[in-house]
Amino acid sequence: MKVVDKATISLAGVIGNESANEVNALLKEHVKFRANSNLVIDLLELKSVSSVVLSLLLCGLRAAKEVDCHLSYRNMPQDLFNMARVSGIESILLKTDA
User: Domain 2-94 - what CATH class?
Assistant: First the structure.
């Protein structure tokens, strides 16, 4: 995860079971920092598409709701979106797509 600017972070590389807890903690930290504001998560450099990543995106939305942060996702890989569609949660992610 890297900071692009004060309102945008980028998820990059491969995120798997081994790194999920760390990424989740960092994501929650960024969301909390942007309470009552906006945060964009850019997925352009994301190299992994898995249920772990999908779960992290949903955890981010839940954390954002708790602190009134408007969280949106940008450049979602098509395979990840398709996985969300199969799970029936694409509308949740579409509402947040910047």
Answer: alpha beta
